Amino acid sequence: MFSHNREEAEAKRIHAIFDLLKQQYPGAKTALHFANPFQLFVATVLSAQTTDEQVNRITAKLFPRADTPEKLARMKQAELEGYLKGCGLYRQKSRFLIEASRIILEKHGGNVPDTFEDLVALPGVGRKTANVVLSNAFNKPALAVDTHVFRVSRRLGLASGKKVEQVEEELKALLPPHEWGKVHHRLIAHGRRICKALKPQCGHCVLGPYCPSRHKTKSAQAKTKAP
């Protein structure tokens, strides 16, 4: 009986968190600028260790020059690097994007693949990039776990895994597939605005009553401020 009540209380807590996130961030979506699946693919590859704002500045100059796999595949790596400077790991990403563009042309008829397996087979593409493309470009059920989703979901007690794959599976188990992509964006928005990495704004967080980390974070901040 006690165990059943505990499970029911936890289910209500989790439901309240997702409901409040939906209310707080009803229009949450990717901040990356793109007009087609290939542009999103490029922008997402570039977003690793780089802010979305910086990626948008880079692609605003790159896409007029190369916005298709055909055009990008023909670019010399040195030329592409010139566009990508200011982006973390820009030399490596330049090589990956040229190689991926050639594979997209040769194996996928010039179209960005729309399956997880085909996407992660491309150079420079991991789980996060594949899931972002599937969800945002093809409207397929996918839940990408970036640094914000990883941090916020663990702080809220929605997941406990220490690896991205574990957190992804834990979150997906809590939600219907049609909510996966939406919750991804809401968790990112909350992580950027409130549940920040170094200075979470717990005093302004509507999720406070349902957050098991709130008192821990406050205690840690108090110790840091203590003389």
Highlighted features:
227 residues, mainly alpha, Endonuclease Iii, domain 2, Endonuclease III, domain 1, 2 domains, 12 helices, 0% strand, elongated, disordered C terminus
Topology diagram in text:
Blueprint: H1 2-24, H2 37-46, H3 52-62, H4 69-73, H5 77-84, H6 90-108, H7 116-120, H8 127-138, H9 147-155, H10 164-174, H11 177-193, H12 214-225
Helix pairs in contact: 1-11, 2-3, 2-8, 5-6, 9-11
Low-pLDDT parts are 219-227
> Helix/strand/pairing class, anyone?
mainly alpha
Number of helices: 12
Q: Using the coordinates above, name the CATH class of the largest domain.
A: Mainly Alpha
If you consult CATH, what is the topology of the largest domain?
Endonuclease III, domain 1
**Number of domains as seen in the coordinates:** 2
Distance between the termini: 47 Å
Helix content: 55-70%
Shape: elongated
Say how many strands there are: 0
Order of helices and strands: HHHHHHHHHHHH
Query: Judging by the overall fold, what is the CATH architecture of the largest domain?
Result: Orthogonal Bundle
Percentage beta strand: under 5%
Assigned CATH superfamily of the largest domain: Hypothetical protein, domain 2
Q: Quick check: average pLDDT?
A: 93
Characterize the main sheet. Answer: none
Describe this structure in words.
- This protein has 227 residues and is an all-alpha fold.
- The protein folds into 2 domains: 2-26 and 143-218, Helix-hairpin-Helix base-excision DNA repair enzymes (C-terminal) (Endonuclease Iii, domain 2, Orthogonal Bundle); 37-138, Hypothetical protein, domain 2 (Endonuclease III, domain 1), CATH 1.10.340.30.
- It is built from 12 helices and no strands.
- It has helices spanning 2-24, 37-46, 52-62, 69-73, 77-84, 90-108, 116-120, 127-138, 147-155, 164-174, 177-193, 214-225.
- Helix 1 packs across helix 11.
- The chain is elongated and about 60 Å long.
- The relative contact order is 0.11.
